[in-house]
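Reviewer 2 asked us to include a model.

Predict the structure of this chain.
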Amino acid sequence: MTATIELAGVAKRFGSRQVLGGVDLAVQPGTSLVIIGGSGTGKSVLLKCILGLIPIDQGKIMVNGQIVSGLRGVALAAHRTRIGMLFQGGALFDSLSVWRNISFALSGSAASRRDAAIDNLARVGLGAEVADLKPSELSGGMLKRVALARAIAARPPILFFDEPTTGLDPINAARINNLIRTLVQDLKITAVTITHDMASVRVIADRVAMLHGGRIIWHGPLSTLDGCDQPHVRQFITGSADGPIGQAATP
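Predicted model (structure tokens):
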């Protein structure tokens, strides 16, 4: 079976800092992969490289068996239409209403796009009364759900989630996690989520990969995560201050 997303030896440097140092990773069709790792380890950079927002220095990125690293112009734009993205901060347009944000990438009349937006709001548990509000009138949890509705509006076969629960209280975080899991299953999409929230990992993931030192140091099914004896993974999932990842901050 051809992997939906495949990375081979992907490297990226910013000045003297090597962020990605040879990433090898494959995501199978219909799989929800969660990439874990500490802050600043390059998780967001990795997603942006797959999207073509950041050019890679070395290696190869393939989507559905086709090389996408190095695409430009119309070909790059076409590649990006296959991927829906939930950005960490939501990235909604402040000046547009909720329904216009959700339907931004859709074609058709204003009436049809508004109807589509309301349908997608329902998918994320929000009513039609939200459609005409501005982002500034929404709570943090509602902003995330509207951003999620926008990410799925065009029914892309691939979804990326960048720290989807950051800034949310535990109840709203749980709602977002459950929504993502349900949408992945209902829409039969391939999903890649990056997070440091282990509660999210346990709800969203089919498989888990850990990025550390610019490489994937462990990759396996969620069911094997708790039994993993790789020291970096053990420290991360237990939240221990002691271990190879680093030292606790001094008060």
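The two ends are 51 Å apart (CA to CA). The chain has two domains: 1-82+157-246, 94-155. We have added this to the supplementary material.
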